[in-house]
Amino acid sequence: MAFPEPRPQAPQLPQHLLRTIDCQQGAVRAVRFNADGNYLLSCGSDKSLKLWSVSRGTPLKTYSGHGYEVLDADGSYDNSHLCSCSSDKTVILWDVATGQVTRKLRGHAGKVNCVQFNEEATIILSGSLDGTVRCWDTRSRRFEPIQVLDEARDSVSSLKVAQHELLTGSVDGRVRRYDLRMGQLHVDFISSPITCVCFSQDGQCTLSSSLDSTVRLLDKSTGEMLGEYSGHKMKGYKLDCCLSSKDTHVLSCSEDGHVYFWDLVEGSLSLKLPVGKAVVQSLSFHPTETCLLTAMEGRVQVWGAEPEDTEEDAVAT
Amino acid sequence: MASDSDSDEDFVTYGTPLEPLEEDEPLKKPVPLHEQTVKDEKGRYQRFHGAFTGGFSAGYFNTVGTKEGWAPSTFVSSRQQKVEKKHHARPEDFMDEEDFGEHGIAPREITTSQEFSSSRRDAAGEKARAVHAQAALIPGDTLLEELITPTRSSVGVELLKRMGWREGQGVGPRTKRKARRQQTAGGVYGAVLPPGEGRERERERGERDRRGRGRVTFAPKDVTPVDFNPRLGVQGFGATVVWTRAGRCWASGAEHIDCSGRSRSARSRLFGDAQRGSRRGGVAGQVGTFNGVRVGAMEDDDDEEVYHRDCMSRYDTELGGAEPGDGLYGWTAPQQYNKSKDASYLGKILEGFTLAQKPSQETTIFPPPSLPRDYRPVHRFRPSVEVLSLSGVSPALAEALRVSRGHMVKEEGGPQQGGRHQLDSSQRRALLGEDALQGPSSVLELLKPEDRERLLSLRNSSSSNVPAPKTQPPASHDALRWAGPAAVAAPEALTVWKGVQTSAQTFRPFEKNSSKQARYELYLNRLKQGDKDGLEQSLDPGMTEWERSRERDEFVRASILYRPTASSLSCRFTRAKDPEEDDGSVEVPRDQEGDVDDKQAAVNMKMFGKLTRETFEWYPDKLLCKRFNIPDPYPGYNTHTHTHTHTHTHTQGHTHTHTHTHTHTHTHTHTHTHTHRHTHRHTGTQGHTHTHTHTHTHTHTHTHTLGGHTHTLGHTHTHTHSDTHAHTHTHTCTHTQTHTRTQTHTHGHIHIYTHTHTHTHTHTHTHTHTHTHRHTHTDTHTDTQGHRDTHTHTHTHTHRHTGTQGHRDTHTHTHTHTLGDTHTHSDTHTHTHSDTHTHTHTQTHTYSLTHTHTHTHTHTHTHTHTHIHTYIHTYIHTHTHTHTHTHTHTHTHTHTHTLIQKYH
């Protein structure tokens, strides 16, 4: 670009519905972008996991092998594997291309709420209702976890991995950050059951949403609260929250059928995106672009900053 | 052999005959080397080659017959041909045909097959004997059998049998009947001639011709084949000797002559002439001298005619000697003749010995105690298993309570069998039906109140920090004296139990004694209320001081060991409630992670930060760090600590006391074979696979030949130690093995009568094997941020073996750590199995061979085994063989697997 922008553009929000995908797999429990944001994974309550193309909204593959509804999924950095967890207490490592179960990891004593690959997809981390986080090795043939993190006093509702850190949120109202490099565990007391935790993109902050209808942004190193975002309704559902790709906004699902956008710094509500009448179950922000996925009932909606061309829109709808 | 006639047809021609020499033929020139040709058996010319090898052409251009020569065998996958038998290359596969020829290196000529040879071995029999030897009473039983192998009848013998020959008969022309008796009875010399001698036959033939009575012919007598029947059962020398004819076995060949001559002379020297038998009237001594010139008295050769020397041994000095001489020998069964003999003894009488005139002194043989019918020699371990079944009590607690004589463990018979010392005075009183004693229970109560006060204050100031409330006079007395271990542990028990709300007493350690249990529960209740003096108040003031102090210790120990489950497990559960009274609220246990109230207040005030932040040490798994591509934050403090300590201690002591006065050769063969196989497999949760395979083969061959003074001690110690460590890391292994072996042998001999000879054989074989594995591996990680970390992981395995092998049938496994100098144990988890086996094996062999010598063989095995087998075999030889065998096997296996991942 020859000339610099005369002034920075105001950050755009994904407020235009690009397309709606009817997943045909019962209620969609979670929706996730893959590593590069070109595909999405939808976790259905009909025990299936589906892979979709985001841009075209077409189904690419259905992964069936779980014994109960799929609760969370993640894709590896190289798009070669998927992992998913289910109410059937198992974690499954899938081969993307063949759709076959590469490994079925049993060990949790309760339904598995959340699952994540680490950066190199050598470890699958899964948090479960049994209050443990289990670290599964994808490289070896062992079926036992490498390590079981049983510090949580209650169900582990959410976990995220960033580089050498593991962030877990538990129903016991604590956000735990395991620092592998330092060998330390930092516990932040939030008091209300945590529904979702996130790292900020810069890795300096943690975001946690809890059942007191509040999303809090905490400083990672000290645990001090940097921001508190409220206004939405999160009382009984395990709903997701996230940060936008450039850490400008805080997003959260709400039980009133909206996705709330708060300005991160100011803490003011930027946008109240109406998704539907039901509860917004899950959301996922594109890793790089301004694109948002929301899941409500059996549908996944793709939101973008700019409305797409009409013919594509027509195709999608 | 050629017959007597000198006909040419009887010659056997070997080789190529030389050409007949003609006198006027010129001398042939020798064929030069290059013109010499050699053909193989198929007529093909072969080429000489090799000055030194001297052989023929080795195939195709001096290769192995193919153009390629020795082609290396290529890999052939055996996947598809699993079933096919694998072809094992034998040496014959690489040999030429010539090698199998008559002059080859592996000639395949016609040899006597096993069927035709007399020394045929049967594999099945050997196998059966080996199996039998396992259960044999005497461990070295098979050795004797192997030394003396039974002869097999060859085809020749069987042919002879088909032709009518019977064993025991001689081979040759048949003889007349009366010839022999005539000679024996009327012989002036009366020599008992060895049978089968041609000279005797000639003489018999002459007698027969002279008498003319030989119408019935008999087979000539023959040397009785030695019938080596393996001895079965427990027998002494010659107890059920089945020599078919007495004495014949010793007179059957020059080999025996040599043996008897030498060994007898040696024994004569050793034992003096007192042992010399009198069967041949002192002639035996001359046999020795006669044999000194290597001409056996009974040797069967014609040289005797040449060196015709009269020998006294040929003369029978007794009438009615070995044979009846009726010529029926070989026809009838040998038992016929044995019956006519002295019925007391059927065996062979040793040379130089006679049968005793008076019977040997009757030795009282006490029968072994008869075992109860339902006796089962099963060792009952300490009732750790039973304890474990009791309401989830930890073994340590159970052990502690058992040691402290808590009545938790149910013992057969109840407390009445535990002895009166296990009852307290009130129990004894209840048993006896006495009334409770009236009056003061303590001496202090007799004191005046001010004196008591003074004493209390004195002791209070001098001793403990335990406060003594004055309101409880008897308890306060005890509190003053209470300085035992319970005093130290009581505060701990208090802190453990303080504030515990659970009322259900799942573990009742003193269930046997209800009053004691009630006191214990009272004590626990007071502990829960935080009462520091709960212990004293809950004790029975009517008990004696000693009983009180004992109970104090027991209570404190039990309360500490069985602490309320404050672990994380119990924190996760709340007690179930009755549905009627369920008000929807759940009793949440007290939070352990700090003061929730403060944090909650901080949260309410939105003061996140220091107040809400807690930081703990966290130990990520090493493999997890590796997978995350970061260095282990605690390299020296690995999350997995494997400590394998194997301590095997074998101690063996042999005390052989041989007291023997007998003259014949005693062979004691003692074989130890101890095979110790220890396989330890540990699979860690990190992908470590440790496979330890210890194979110990101790072979101890111990041969005593006391008559000839032969002591053979053989030790074969095979130690196979294989370790397989499968790590996912590269590591450098340093194996250090130290073998220390100490052997001490002390030999002495005891001969009681003529020679007092003490044979004390103390055999201590201490084998110390220290195996130390030190695995040091260094991992260097470079993570994504450019950090480069190096950490060193040290993995140390220590295997220490101190030991000696044991007897094969006697095993002592003492799983204890009594040997303080050799055992190594770590603090965390020690699995201790105590097992003491006593195995007493007493053998007294009493056997009356002749009256001149008694042979007592006392074989005593003393082992530490709880199986008590007592074998008393009594047969007296005056050979006291005391074999004290102490074998202690200490096996301490400490396996510590510490997984540290909790923060503190």
UniProtKB/TrEMBL annotation, chain A:
Entry keyword Repeat: yes
GO CC aspect terms: catalytic step 2 spliceosome; cytoplasm
Biological process (GO), any one: mRNA splicing, via spliceosome
Subcellular location: Cytoplasm
Family matches, as InterPro entries: WD40/YVTN_repeat-like_dom_sf, WD40_PAC1, WD40_repeat_CS, WD40_repeat_dom_sf, WD40_rpt, WD_repeat_MORG1
Keywords: Cytoplasm, Repeat, WD repeat
Annotated signal sequence range: none
CDD domains to which the protein is assigned, alphabetical: WD40
Swiss-Prot/TrEMBL WD repeat ranges: 21-62, 63-104, 105-140
Main location as per UniProt: cytoplasm
Keyword hit for Cell wall biogenesis/degradation: no
Any matching Pfam family: WD40
PANTHER family xrefs: WD REPEAT DOMAIN-CONTAINING PROTEIN 83 (PTHR22842:SF3), WD40 REPEAT PROTEIN (PTHR22842)
Family: Belongs to the WD repeat MORG1 family.
Protein name, as recorded: WD repeat domain-containing protein 83
Protein's gene: wdr83
Automatic annotation (TrEMBL), chain B:
Region (Disordered): 1-31, 75-106, 168-213, 458-477, 574-596, 644-746, 758-845, 880-904
Signal sequence residues: none
Basic and acidic residues bias locations: 197-210, 777-792, 806-838
Matching InterPro entries: DUF1604, G_patch_dom
Residue stretches of biased makeup (Basic residues): 644-703, 758-776, 793-802, 880-896
UniProt feature, compositional bias: Acidic residues: 1-11
Protein family membership: Belongs to the GPATCH1 family.
PANTHER family linked to this entry: G PATCH DOMAIN-CONTAINING PROTEIN 1
Protein known as: G patch domain containing 1
Originating organism: Sander lucioperca
Lineage, top ranks: Eukaryota, Metazoa, Chordata, Craniata, Vertebrata
